[in-house]
Amino acid sequence: MACAADVARGIGAAIAPVVPVYLYGAAHAEGRTLAATRRLTPYFKPSNGWAAPPDLPDATAGSAPFEPPSARTGACCCGAVPLVLNFNMALATSDGDAARAVADAVRTRSGGPPGVEALALAHEGGRFEVACNLLAPDETTPAVVRALADAAAARAGTSVVSEYTIGLSVAEIRERLAEADAADAARGAR
């Protein structure tokens, strides 16, 4: 993790001259989570312009005072954390309150299962999706989150119409590494 944190800080420093960078996880001095970092920025809040929050001194990879993201460039988060699986579910609703109810049902901070960060986000066609970070995907699987979301969506008068993951599960990573090792061994045996 220390090596990953060094790499994240290096990437952040390289990007920082162009776009403000916020560090998280092991790359951040206090280990602040990505979710906590996002909550401190205006991006995931109703638009009030790009006012600079006073408590993000580590913007621009900790090397300069905070410069708020602009509407043109935005900002970048760089961090080092154990495997996170992004699991998103599209809802059959344009009702933001219903979508937030589903996100609340699966989010750890709101009483959901361990290791789930979740947001209700506007999606294509005026509908919403619930975007989740599964911080312990072997413990709280996409199937567990989907079952909770289905129940919460039904209570809110909507449904989950599709789901998708971004990235690989731990099992998929292990499988691909084993395949790569086998291919390397086969090349070495020739």
UniProtKB/TrEMBL annotation:
<dbReference type="InterPro" id="IPR013802">
    <property type="entry name" value="Formiminotransferase_C"/>
</dbReference>
<feature type="domain" description="Formiminotransferase C-terminal subdomain">
    <location>
        <begin position="82"/>
        <end position="181"/>
    </location>
</feature>
<protein>
    <recommendedName>
        <fullName>Formiminotransferase C-terminal subdomain domain-containing protein</fullName>
    </recommendedName>
</protein>
<dbReference type="InterPro" id="IPR037064">
    <property type="entry name" value="Formiminotransferase_N_sf"/>
</dbReference>
<dbReference type="GO" id="GO:0016740">
    <property type="term" value="F:transferase activity"/>
</dbReference>
<dbReference type="InterPro" id="IPR051623">
    <property type="entry name" value="FTCD"/>
</dbReference>
<dbReference type="InterPro" id="IPR022384">
    <property type="entry name" value="FormiminoTrfase_cat_dom_sf"/>
</dbReference>
<dbReference type="InterPro" id="IPR037070">
    <property type="entry name" value="Formiminotransferase_C_sf"/>
</dbReference>
<dbReference type="GO" id="GO:0005542">
    <property type="term" value="F:folic acid binding"/>
</dbReference>
